[in-house]
Amino acid sequence: MTDALDPVRVDADIRRWLERAVIGLNLCPFAKSVYLKAQVRIVVSDASTERALLEQLGEELALLRDTPAEQVDTTLLVHPQVLGDFLDYNDFLDDADALVEAMDLAGELQVASFHPDYRFADTDPDDAGNLTNRAPYPVLHLLREASIDRAVAAYPQPDAIIERNIATMQDLGHDGFRKLLSDEA
């Protein structure tokens, strides 16, 4: 197994990204409290096919549905061996949303997306704004709608988060982002 696929290393890389970028740069002002309360479940998938990943996604959606938020508020399903190509990953998000619908979880749970090559529609691949959704590995982020609603209601000007994040990433730039996530940082 290569270093990049070592589940311990993958978990450490994701935690570094969470701590330094998502929480450290305050990209998600709601992440810190659930992370510090150990309510973020990180699952490093061994799936090597889209079908296996979709099955595991269903299992994780059911687990989140059936577990009190006080125990697990959100799940990061990290899948380093499948959907490394961003366009394939982006297409897979339709399957993920369809699974949420098929499990009658629409309005209760949703899937957000992070990928090493994330690219917002109509942006240049090198646009620093894309860094807001870039993670060391492809990630399906399972969220509770009720938790999102509570967090947004308690946060002043939630619409400003996206603009602030893009400005933060433009200031940081690609080199700064790489350094932030490196072992030496």
In short:
The protein is α+β, with helices and mostly antiparallel strands and 185 residues long.
Overview of the molecule:
By secondary structure, the chain is α+β, with helices and mostly antiparallel strands. The chain has one domain. The chain is built from six helices and four strands. It has a four-stranded mixed beta sheet, with helices on both faces. Helix 3 packs across helix 4. The longest helix has 22 residues. The relative contact order is 0.15. The model has no long low-confidence stretch (mean pLDDT 94).
Topology (SSEs and partners):
Elements lengths: L6 H17 L7 H6 L3 E5 L5 H17 L7 E5 L7 H17 L6 E6 L24 E6 H10 L5 H22 L4
Parallel strand pairs: 1-2
Antiparallel strand pairs: 2-4, 3-4
Helix pairs in contact: 3-4
Beta-sheet strand percentage?
5-15%
Poorly predicted residue ranges: none
- Tally of separate domains: 1
Order of helices and strands: HHEHEHEEHH
Say what oligomer this is: single chain
Rounded mean pLDDT score: 94
Helix content: 40-55%
Question: How many helices?
Answer: 6
Order of strands across the widest beta sheet? 1-2-4-3
Number of strands: 4
Largest sheet: 4 strands, mixed
Radius of gyration: 16 Å
Structural class: alpha+beta
- Cα distance, first to last residue? 26 Å
Task: Describe the global form.
Answer: globular
